[in-house]
TrEMBL record:
Pathway: Cell wall biogenesis; peptidoglycan biosynthesis. InterPro entries: Lipid_II_flippase_MurJ/MviN (IPR051050), MurJ (IPR004268). It is a multi-pass membrane protein. This is Probable lipid II flippase MurJ. One of its GO terms (biological process) is peptidoglycan biosynthetic process. The chain crosses the membrane at residues 88-112, 132-152, 159-177, 183-207, 245-266, 272-290, 311-332, 352-372, 384-404, 410-427, 439-461, 473-501. Involved in peptidoglycan biosynthesis. Transports lipid-linked peptidoglycan precursors from the inner to the outer leaflet of the cytoplasmic membrane. Keywords: Cell inner membrane, Cell membrane, Cell shape, Cell wall biogenesis/degradation, Membrane, Peptidoglycan synthesis, Transmembrane, Transmembrane helix, Transport. GO terms for molecular function: lipid-linked peptidoglycan transporter activity. The lineage of its organism: Bacteria, Pseudomonadati, Pseudomonadota, Alphaproteobacteria, Acetobacterales. It is found in: Cell inner membrane; Cell membrane. Belongs to the MurJ/MviN family.
């Protein structure tokens, strides 16, 4: 298992690094103007359906059913089930794609109403959306094939295939741009081509593994009905998140040109700690909680949940305060090149600061939700999520004029904080959450250490690095490394002084592990 985790983790890390390079090229080639806005809206459409029908929701339902069929019945039955699921999924997605291609002007009008004022941006968004939408079919089919490979314990190739999205995206921007009307077209074609390549790689890998997935006449068999039934909760859960993101996009299109773009690049930075810490906490906590509750051991469940809260906040709080304090150096160093101007850097940094306000809350949602799921309650988090969609929409309307590009990120952050409060209150009323005094004290001390670190970094930056964004890339990189190193060192020392952690014991354990290896 450890080997598989390392394998998948390594490919995931490589994919994120290449994704950062791809985003840097997008910033350099397109800046934060109307073309970038049109491309981001065009990519949001297939990405939304990918998250609804592919990956999480589909894999969570398909992999257990396929694995059970493979182990309890036969490889032939598993092959048949995979073909049935593949055929039904492809059929549904192709129909959706054809309808979307026909009614794309109306769809863009709904998700980007602000674009209708600028006819050129509106038309560009329609064309780019028509180019990117078929990616949804390819990537959802690829998610199915990846699920088959994971069931066969072929984790490496399944994880490696997704790296091709960023590899193709980078290649398209570098080499396809001269042959296209603009870089946005090249990036859009890169998205769709990457879907074809990912699906091709995975189908070949499945064929090598002895599973020949092919299209057959789609039928709603008993297995397919069961698959859709198990997918429903995941689609509802994913749908809430996607609706929130779509609301943010709709509001952003009504703001000045470039708002969609600067928010996108800010969110990409915010997603780094959120994607790693939130996903890790939620994924590892659920089975532990479920096992403890099945054994009728509530103390073990409380201990597991409290440890997850403790460990998550230990890393998330400094990440949030750190990103807030050095948002300008981060955005400037990573994206402040080419067409991405100093004005864009400051706007994107402001959006990032608003996102970081809700970063701990976004992670805690992942930690508290398993407290419901492990007890068989999947409806309460969904109901709370639906309420926060309404809250997010209302806050967006209130903030859009006075705060512009900072409004949607702040609305999302406040909605996430409300979500966490409601989850915690309901768990507490059900005697499913109990925070002991030592943990509350640790959280207060961690917050205090993070705040001191934040204020120190802001002070150092203003005293010594006033015009970071206007300097050359090497100076900006030097400042960013210096500031992040200072922040990490200061936070660690403060935790030691506050007796939250013992640095001496930490280094002793680290030395023992290194010597053991």
């Amino acid at each position: 298992m450890f080997k598989n985790i390392l394998t998948v983790g390594s490919w995931t890390m490589l994919s994120r690094l290449l994704g950062l390079v791809r985003d840097q090229l997008l910033a350099a080639f397109l800046g934060a103007g109307s073309l970038q806005d049109a491309y981001q809206v065009a990519f949001r459409l297939p990405n939304m359906f990918r998250r609804l029908f592919g990956e999480g929701a589909f894999n969570a339902a398909f992999v257990p059913l396929f694995t059970t069929t493979l182990t309890k019945k036969s490889s032939q039955e598993a092959q048949r089930f995979a073909n049935e699921a593949f055929s039904v999924l492809i059929t549904i997605l192709v129909i959706i794609t054809l309808l979307a291609e026909i009614f794309m002007p109306q769809i863009v009008m709904v998700i980007a109403p602000g674009f209708t004022v600028d006819k050129a941006r509106y038309q560009e968004a329609i064309i780019l959306s028509r180019i990117t939408f078929p990616y949804m079919v390819m990537i959802c089919a690829a998610a199915l094939v990846a699920g088959v490979l994971n069931s066969l314990h072929r984790f490496g190739i399944a994880a490696a295939a997704y790296v091709s999205f960023n590899v193709v995206g980078i290649a398209a921007l570098l080499w396809l741009t001269p042959f296209m009307p603009n870089a946005a077209w090249a990036a859009a074609w890169g998205v769709t081509i990457s879907g074809v390549i990912q699906l091709g790689i995975l189908l070949f890998a499945a064929w090598r593994a002895g599973i020949r997935i092919k299209f057959c006449i789609p039928k709603l068999t008993e297995n397919i009905r069961l698959l859709f039934k198990k997918m429903a909760p995941g689609i509802v859960g994913s749908g809430i998140t996607q609706i929130n993101l779509t609301v943010d996009t709709i509001i952003a299109t009504l703001l000045p040109t470039g708002s969609v773009s600067v928010m996108y690049f800010a969110d990409r930075i915010n997603q780094l700690p959120l994607g790693v810490l939130g996903a890790a906490a939620g994924t590892t906590l659920l089975p532990i909680l479920t096992k403890a509750l099945h054994k009728d051991d509530p103390n073990a469940a409380f201990e597991a949940q409290n440890k997850a809260i403790d460990y998550s906040l230990l890393l998330t709080l400094p990440a949030a305060f750190g990103l807030f304090s050095i948002a300008i150096p981060i955005i400037s160093t990573l994206f402040g090149h080419g067409e991405f101007t100093i004005k864009d850097v400051y706007a994107s940094a402001q959006s990032l600061q608003m996102y970081t306000i809700g970063l701990p809350a976004f992670v805690l949602i992942k930690v508290l939700s398993p407290g419901f799921f492990a007890r068989g309650d999947t409806s309460t988090p969904v109901k709370i999520g639906m309420f926060t969609i309404l809250l997010n929409f209302v806050l967006n309307l209130l903030f859009m004029k006075p705060l512009a590009h900072m409004g949607p990120p702040l609305a999302s952050s406040l909605a996430a904080i409300t979500n966490v409060i409601l989850l915690a209150v309901i768990l507490r009323k059900r005697n499913a959450l109990a925070l002991p005094a030592p943990l509350i004290k640790r959280i207060v001390l961690m917050t205090g250490a993070s705040m001191i670190m934040c204020l120190t970094l802001i002070g150092v930056m203003h005293l010594f690095f006033l015009e970071i964004s206007e300097k050359n890339i090497f100076y900006r990189l030097y400042c960013l490394i210096l500031l992040t190193s200072l922040g990490g060192l200061l936070y660690g020392i403060l935790l030691h002084v506050f007796r939250v952690i013992d640095l001496g014991q930490f280094f002793i354990r680290l030395k023992k592990k290194i010597l053991k290896k």
